[in-house]
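[Meeting: bench + compute handoff]

Bench side (C.D.) handed over the final construct sequence. Compute side (W.E.) agreed to return the predicted structure before the next meeting so the bench team could plan truncations. Sequence as handed over:
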Amino acid sequence: MIEQDHGIKVENIYDTLNERGFIEQVTDKDLVKELLQHPTTCYIGFDPTAGSFHVGSLLPIMSLMHMQRGGHRPLALIGGGTAMVGDPSGKTEMRPIMTREKIDENVVALKKQLSRFIDFSDGKALLINNADWLTGLRYIDFLRDIGRHFSVNRMLSAESYRARMETGLNFIEFNYMLLQSYDFWYLFKHYGCRLQMGGNDQWGNILAGEDLTRRLERETVHGMTFPLLTTSSGIKMGKTHKGAVWLDPELTSPYEYYQFWINQDDSDVERFLLLFTFLPLDEVKRLGAHKDAAIREAKEALAYEATKLCHGRKEADLARDASRQLFGNMEGNASELTTSAQSAITYHISKEEIGDGIPAYILFEKTGLCKTRGEARRLISQGGGYLNGEKIQAFDQMINKQNFNDDSLLIRAGKKRYMKITC
């Protein structure tokens, strides 16, 4: 087992995480604070059910960044093995079973994405796939050596299992807690990991892993969970009218990512500045005190810092410049926008699709400015649709080739959402 270096003291990151709103539950506050006075190896598991993380994964990623900045060693565990079983936590029905090939493909993509946030050079952090040890387990040996330490009654008391009892809990999912507990023990045994972190829906699994390690090794390890975030309107963090907000720029462009953050509700801005940026606390407090029109500065700071962390300074600069120009270009047309503003919000439509014309509400739905045609009809009928800076008079107003200037036009939904159409 790799031992921690208890001779080196570091700034206690527990206080930082607590002040910024990361901590929901912890196994023992005093012991964890004492543990984090010295360089500590910690881990978070990430589920490779998609080829990209979305904004809902940012809270655990940010926590690992804080840990690394505080002098600790993060382990980012990609669940290539546990994904073959499926975590029932927070789910009302069984996850679809994924092929090994698809899981491996997602693992490669997620490892690359995590490297944008965490420094894995020179052993400062490690990327690990639990398929490396879970897929080689012998079932009878696992039941005898590991399964005997688990009480079925105690497992069924965990929220992740109790919530599934009415809709049905598959036996393969019932094994998930054993596998995640085994991960914690394995990472303690081979990497000296003494702290597991995760969303609050993982609390039961974390406690089970803590208990298993104590039983097998007579050693104490710890757990910490983060709040499950929703916006002030009750929407799950990372969801929009278009669906999930992805960290992959091919799925959610840097401009769209920037707009997601700048359009957050005023009441959420200070909380999100604490969680999703590294701005100092006094600066967050100053920005969070803004009201009414002045809150725009705080929202721009949130959007810029979040986009810079995910996509780099250059893309954040381009997204901010495009956003500023678009908001200052209410009466303009597409040809008047800068290159960065145009490239941020472009949708191409063929001349065949335009034909003799296309109703405005259909174009708004087709480009994604509205989720449905019904939503587009309501928006335009209420005066919220614009074409080249002019209010659209009717939801079925025909948009045709005559509306294009140099093969492009600009439509707008409300005050904030633009789309440049090229033909």
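W.E. noted at the follow-up: Residues 295-311 form the longest helix (17 residues). C.D. will use this when planning the next construct.
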